[in-house]
Amino acid sequence: MPLIQVTLRAGRSPEQLRALISALTDAAVEAIGAPKPTVRVVLHEVPATHWAAGDVTLAERMSSDA
Q1: Which one is catalytic: 2, 14, 35, 37?
Q2: How many degrees, rounded to 5, is the angle at CA 42 between CA 3 and CA 39?
Protein backbone atom coordinates (compact mmCIF):
# COMPACT_ATOMS: atom_id res chain seq x y z
CA MET A 1 0.00 0.00 0.00
CA PRO A 2 1.90 3.07 -1.21
CA LEU A 3 1.53 6.22 0.88
CA ILE A 4 2.37 9.49 -0.85
CA GLN A 5 2.66 12.52 1.42
CA VAL A 6 2.95 16.03 0.02
CA THR A 7 3.51 19.23 1.96
CA LEU A 8 2.57 22.41 0.17
CA ARG A 9 1.70 26.01 0.89
CA ALA A 10 -1.97 26.52 1.57
CA GLY A 11 -4.03 28.47 -0.91
CA ARG A 12 -4.73 26.23 -3.86
CA SER A 13 -8.26 25.56 -5.02
CA PRO A 14 -10.06 22.31 -4.22
CA GLU A 15 -9.94 21.53 -7.94
CA GLN A 16 -6.15 21.91 -8.04
CA LEU A 17 -5.74 19.70 -4.98
CA ARG A 18 -8.03 17.07 -6.47
CA ALA A 19 -6.05 17.13 -9.72
CA LEU A 20 -2.83 16.64 -7.75
CA ILE A 21 -4.29 13.65 -5.91
CA SER A 22 -5.34 12.07 -9.21
CA ALA A 23 -1.98 12.69 -10.87
CA LEU A 24 -0.03 11.26 -7.92
CA THR A 25 -2.27 8.20 -7.76
CA ASP A 26 -1.89 7.59 -11.49
CA ALA A 27 1.90 8.02 -11.22
CA ALA A 28 2.14 5.37 -8.49
CA VAL A 29 -0.01 2.98 -10.51
CA GLU A 30 2.13 3.50 -13.61
CA ALA A 31 5.58 3.61 -11.97
CA ILE A 32 5.35 0.71 -9.55
CA GLY A 33 2.26 -1.17 -10.66
CA ALA A 34 0.38 -0.43 -7.44
CA PRO A 35 -3.29 -1.37 -7.57
CA LYS A 36 -5.17 1.95 -7.66
CA PRO A 37 -7.39 1.19 -4.63
CA THR A 38 -4.28 0.68 -2.47
CA VAL A 39 -2.67 4.06 -3.22
CA ARG A 40 -3.00 6.56 -0.38
CA VAL A 41 -2.34 10.31 -0.85
CA VAL A 42 -2.12 12.76 2.04
CA LEU A 43 -1.82 16.48 1.39
CA HIS A 44 -0.51 18.67 4.20
CA GLU A 45 -1.30 22.33 3.61
CA VAL A 46 0.84 24.77 5.55
CA PRO A 47 0.03 28.47 5.92
CA ALA A 48 2.63 30.72 4.30
CA THR A 49 3.34 32.21 7.74
CA HIS A 50 4.36 28.79 9.06
CA TRP A 51 6.90 27.86 6.33
CA ALA A 52 10.32 29.45 6.31
CA ALA A 53 13.70 29.10 4.68
CA GLY A 54 16.70 31.11 5.75
CA ASP A 55 14.66 32.75 8.53
CA VAL A 56 12.23 34.25 5.99
CA THR A 57 8.66 32.96 5.82
CA LEU A 58 6.90 32.38 2.53
CA ALA A 59 4.47 35.14 3.49
CA GLU A 60 7.35 37.58 3.97
CA ARG A 61 8.97 36.45 0.74
CA MET A 62 5.68 36.83 -1.18
CA SER A 63 5.06 40.34 0.24
CA SER A 64 8.58 41.48 -0.71
CA ASP A 65 8.07 40.19 -4.27
CA ALA A 66 4.97 42.35 -4.70
Answers
A1: 2
A2: 40
